[in-house]
Structure formats: C-alpha cells, structure tokens
Design brief:
The protein has 505 residues and is mainly α. It is built from 18 helices and seven strands.
C-alpha cells in the first residue's frame, strides 16, 4: 500500500503477471463488453468454429441443469419447506423450536428468503415445482461463473473453468439454500478482483451481503473474501492509502448490513453455532480423494499453481491469497469444497488464459444470447420432465405415511437422523427426537442419539430421556434388534427402507 501522494497504477501494470503478455481486459473491466463489433479475424482463430465456441458456455450450463433435474431427495430440503410454511403462518423469525421436544437452542430463520420461496412454490406447483428450484439454482451458479470468468478468458478457457468448477461443486448441488452461496462467492471474488485492478469499491456488495445473510449461513464468506483481497491489495502496493481505506469500508458496511436482517444482530454469531456438532456430520468431515468434486478442485488449483511456478514473475498477492483461501476452504470440509471452487474459478480463468493466444474473442450479443438462451432451454427441459419424475420425493418413509399419520398429535418418535426433516414436513403430528437442524440440539444429545442408533451401551437411557413411544428407523440399524429383543418393542409396519416400531404398552 502506497502513501497518499501516489496515484493508481495503470491497469496493465495491475494485471496478474504470469510471465506472459498481460491483457488489460483482465483488469478493470466490470463485465462482458456487449454490443461491440463482431470479433476480428484474430478472434476467429481457434480449434473450433467461432459459432461453436460461442455456444460452449451455454452448452455447459444446459448439461449441468438437465443433469440435476431430479426429484426432491435431500433430507434437509423438507425442514426448509416446513420453515417457509411456518414463516408464512407466523412471520416469526426467532423463538422456541416448534417441532422437536429435545431441542435446547433458540430457532432462528437465518435462511428465510429461500425457505419462503420454496414454501410459495410448493403451494402453487407442488413438489415438482420445488424440485425445479434445484436446476434454477444450478443455472444461476453456471451463469455467474460465465459472467465472472468470461471477461478474463477466452471462450474455451471460460467454458473449461466453468465445467471443472461445476464438477467440483457437484457433491453440494442439492436443493438447499447453500446453492445461492456458491453463486454469491463467485460474484464477490470477481468483484474484488476488479477492485484490486481499478481501486474502485463495489458498493453493491453491501446490499447483496444483506440478501446473502437472509439466504444462507455462509454469508460471512463474502466478508472473508473481501478481507483477504484487501490484504493482497495492500501487499501489492497497487493503490493509495486513501483508496485502500475506502475499499475497506465495503466489508465493514457488509457486516453492518448483516446485523440488520429480520433475524437480528445474533446472525453475526450464527456461523459458529454448528462448530461443536460438526464432528458428527459427514459433510463437515475433511474431503476425500474418492470424491470426484474434490479431485476436480485439485485439478483446477493444480493448474493455477503449475502455471505460476513456471512463470517468469510472481503473480499478484491478491491472486495468491485468494487461491490460498480457496485451497484452505477445500481442504477444511467436504461441505466447503464448493466454496473453494467458487473462489478459485475467476483467478483460474485469467491464469489459464495466460497460456493461450492473447487475441481472445470479445463478448458479443450472439454469445450472450446463446448462453442465456441455452440455460433457459435447460430450465424448460427440466420443467417438462419434473412433473412426472418428481411428484414423489426419493427420501423419507413415504410407504409408511398411513400409520405415521394415524399417530396421536404430539407423539414423540425416536427417529433415524436422516428422516427427521421429512417427519417435520410430512407428519406435523409427531415430534422427532433429532433432525438436520443440529444447531438447535445440544452436542451431548447428538452424541447420545448416534449411540442409540448403534445400540451402544446405555442406549436405553436415550429412550427414557426422550420419552419416545414410537421409533422410525432405517432397516438394518442395530438398535432395531435391541428394541425388539431386549425392550419388547413391536414392529408396526415395515417399509421398503424404514421400520416403524411401537413401545410396549
């Protein structure tokens, strides 16, 4: 960071130095240049005809959208639906948990915007309409990746990075509010890269942070991206002190915006609410090399590091620190691999472009039309196939609806962890002992529940403490045999995947 007497360096000097020719378009350009002249003869060069290359980004998004057009099958989708329904009934954002008798923490709707949307869509379009929101989220992520990478790379490089990034996110592309976090992370990273190049603060990040904070608990990553970028900008000495301080107001104002959502200032502490229970949840475990998404991320990160290692000059600190953040996120949890892919994608596009001829194609109306049009075509195909494919969810004890509906109001059910959210949504007459909202349960309760499922010593204490008189468990769980043989529980009905049991009377 320089003194106040220095001006901003030219854009060409601020562009990442990969040891190849710099391109000013990777600097201060705020988005695709649309409506300009058609590509020059240089832009027509390439291994594929220009028309095919212009269709590539849209084709990538179309394929991704159609591939994720499937029935509702994420166990957490159901309690999000129930949360949206309850919000429409009460317009209460904080308060006691209305569903489980075993929760001990306040229930806060810090993801209320998408939950509200899901509830409204379900009312008018049913489950197929809710299922369509997953392809819609996939299209939003794909278009954001294209929007962030295309000004920094050619059509081929942009399409390649978008494809690999979507594969890296694939394990997390499920019908939950976190879908929007991936799109926001891409947009915030691209915005800070532009600010690093032209020293202009992107004030729109502040209201978008408010929206993100009403959407998903990963909203704070937007602030983290800004702080990391600010550190890189300071190390690059690319702006004056006054310019840097002005840029620093953006994450500060973003924090203030997050504090005034309907959930209240307590939202600022929500990212830390699940820390104590992450050790029991699979998606909060470190990633594995057996996960294709993690391998795709490693390929993207490896390409960036390899190019930098072979370059004649060091890359900008801003790029280095953002890539370091992305790698750290991807190594931390399986759940955050997708966020790492979102952060690294814009940097990877510009870095890989450094290996290609500098005369990349300008963005034209034809490319924009093809990209948006093909994404819309994918959404149309999804809308046509989902009414017959997604009328019934692929998760939950759907073939046990009749006996579960017949249980008295307020019946406490010792349930399999994964089916708790489905019970909340489908059978409001029962009270599950656990569900996917682990932040509302004490850590000890989560551990005792897992011991109960395994029929570990003292599992009977869990039954007594919860007061459950019925159990809905997955076939083959050890506790089923323990309940029937040791505690004389009886089987009410067996479904294809679950068993409903009743305590002795």
């Amino acid at each position: 960071m320089t003194s106040d007497t220095r001006g901003t360096a030219p854009a060409a000097e601020l562009a990442p130095d990969t040891g190849l020719e710099n391109d000013p378009d990777t600097g201060p350009v705020d988005g695709p240049v649309v409506g300009g002249p058609e590509p020059t003869p240089h832009g027509r060069r390439g291994p594929l005809p220009l028309g095919v290359r212009q269709a590539l980004p849209g084709l990538v998004i179309l394929v991704a959208v159609v591939q994720i057009a499937r029935p509702v099958g994420d166990p957490d989708t159901f309690w999000h639906l129930a949360a949206g329904d309850r919000l429409r009934e009460t317009w209460t954002f904080n308060g006691p948990d209305p569903w489980s008798t075993m929760s001990t923490q306040p229930w806060r709707l810090h993801e209320w915007l998408p939950e509200l949307l899901m509830s409204v869509v379900q009312q008018f379009l049913g489950l197929p309409g809710v299922a369509w929101l997953l392809p819609l989220g996939g299209a939003a992520i794909g278009l954001t990746l294209w929007r962030a990478t295309r000004p920094r790379a050619s059509l081929l490089a942009s399409a390649a990075v978008t494809s690999v990034a979507l594969v890296a996110m694939s394990q997390s592309l499920s019908l939950r509010p976190h879908l929007l976090s991936f799109a926001f992370a891409v947009a915030f990273t691209a915005a800070w890269l532009r600010s690093a190049a032209d020293a202009r603060p992107r004030w729109w990040l502040v209201p978008v942070t408010w929206v993100w904070a009403c959407t998903h608990g990963m909203w704070f990553f937007g602030v983290v991206i800004g702080v990391v970028a600010l550190l890189g900008i300071a190390l690059d000495r690319a702006v004056t002190r006054r310019q840097w301080l002005r840029l620093a107001l953006v994450p500060l104002a973003s924090l203030a915006a997050a504090a005034v959502t309907p959930t209240g200032p307590e939202l600022l502490l929500s990212p830390f609410a699940v820390n104590e229970t992450t050790q029991y949840i699979e998606e909060w475990m470190p990633p594995s090399l057996r996960q294709p998404g993690f391998l795709a991320f490693l390929a993207l990160a490896g390409a960036v590091v390899l190019v930098w290692a072979r370059a004649r000059h060091r890359a900008r600190w801003t790029d280095i620190l953002l890539v370091g953040l992305a790698i750290g996120l991807a190594l931390l949890y399986s759940r955050t691999v997708a966020v790492g892919a979102a952060v690294i994608a814009p940097v990877a596009a510009a870095t890989i472009q450094g290996l290609l001829p500098p005369d990349r194609e300008p963005v034209t109306r034809r490319e924009v039309g093809l990209t948006v049009g093909l994404a819309a075509l994918g959404l149309l195909v999804a809308a046509l196939i989902l009414p017959t494919r997604a009328a019934v969810p692929t998760w939950g004890a759907n073939d046990l609806d009749t006996p579960l509906s017949a249980l008295p109001q307020g019946t406490v059910v010792c349930n399999d962890y994964g089916v708790g959210g489905w019970l909340i949504w489908r059978h409001p007459n029962v009270r599950p002992t656990i569900d996917g909202r682990v932040e509302v349960y004490a850590t000890g309760h989560v551990k005792e529940h897992l011991d109960f499922e395994r029929a570990a010593p003292a599992w009977q204490a869990y039954v007594r403490r919860t007061g459950c008189t019925y159990a809905l468990l997955t076939k083959g769980q050890p506790v089923i045999e323990a309940l029937t043989e040791q505690a004389q529980w009886t089987v009410v009905q067996r479904g294809s995947e679950y068993v409903l049991l009743r305590a002795p009377r």
